[in-house]
Design a protein that fits this description.
Layout (H helix, E strand, L loop, with lengths): L40 E11 L5 E11 L3 E5 L6 H8 L7 E6 L2 E2 L7 H6 L2 E4 L11 H10 L5 H15 L14 H13 L5 E5 L7 H16 L3 E5 L3 H7 L2 E6 L2 E7 L7
Parallel strand pairs: 3-8, 3-9, 6-7, 7-8
Antiparallel strand pairs: 1-2, 1-4, 4-5, 9-10
């Protein structure tokens, strides 16, 4: 049976005391863009719609609450609105109406300077890896810290820690072209983790992988979730979703049509 989320205002945790990289500067405080603190919530959308200039409605009246520590599958056919929802969460785009909260902050009210700081609270994993081809595994992961001004003495220990977590210590000096698809995706996951983000957003992370390697990536994401990081994963992989029996949010034509623990398809 589908669940209907409560109104989000009043449910968002506005506290800045969140688990993020020790080197990330805090977002500038605001007294107007955060809802009252009642419980810790990673991500939320309240009555969100997105209409593009050509008139195409990508999302319509979406309500979604993702508490800290959840593992959520975002499913639906191509064109359902999954990619648009993710773009709103990482503030690649702004909603036409409604409110998007990340780590208790209304993303539409963030200054341009605060947007990169917000993104350091979010680890993003893409289907096509987006690795720098002429940098080694270690250098790809380190680069994510270098561009944010992390002190040099802190970079190597952080990189080695996440490479060990994803099982790539032995491949640290290899280039992306020397890696398998699964190893490239694990490198991308390490890069997403190195800031110690509050939430991982994975957009079709197994889309380019064979079934066996896909399961390895899913098991890695589950382990990361067990360590306390919220995971939101967009996927078409019905077998994985149905086998794991986690929370499933289904989109169709830009609307949430199902939000429940279960399989890929609605169960009767």
């Amino acid at each position: 049976m589908s669940t209907s989320p409560p109104r989000i205002a009043g449910a968002i945790a506005a506290s800045a005391a969140v688990h993020i990289s020790r080197d990330a500067a805090p977002l500038a405080p605001s007294s107007t863009d955060a809802a009252p603190a009642t419980r810790r919530i990673s991500l939320a959308l309240e009555d969100v719609s997105k209409v593009y200039p050509n008139g195409r409605r990508a999302l319509a009246d979406v309500d979604l609450v993702v508490p800290d520590g959840d593992f959520v599958f975002l499913v639906g056919p191509s064109g359902a609105g999954k990619s648009t929802l993710i773009k709103l969460l990482i503030r690649d785009e702004l909603a036409t109406s409604g409110t998007v909260f990340v780590a208790g902050r209304d993303v539409s009210r963030l200054s341009r300077r605060d947007v990169p700081r917000l993104r350091r609270r979010i680890g993003i994993v893409f289907q096509d890896y987006k690795l720098l081809p002429h940098k080694s595994v270690r250098e790809n992961v380190a680069f994510a810290l270098e561009v944010t001004g992390t002190p040099g003495r802190q970079i190597l220990p952080a990189v080695e820690r996440v490479l060990a977590l994803v099982g790539l210590t032995a491949q640290a000096d290899q280039l992306p072209s020397q890696l398998s698809g699964g190893e490239q995706q694990r490198t991308a996951i390490a890069r997403a983790l190195v800031h110690e983000p509050r939430v991982i957003i994975a957009d079709e992370p197994t889309g380019n992988l064979d079934p066996l390697i896909s399961w390895e990536i899913i098991q890695l994401l589950l382990r990361i979730n067990e360590l306390g990081t919220t995971v939101l994963m967009a996927t078409h992989n019905a077998e994985v979703v149905t086998a794991l029996r986690r929370r499933v949010v289904a989109l169709e034509d830009g609307r949430v049509v199902r939000d429940e623990v279960g399989g890929y398809h609605r169960e009767y």
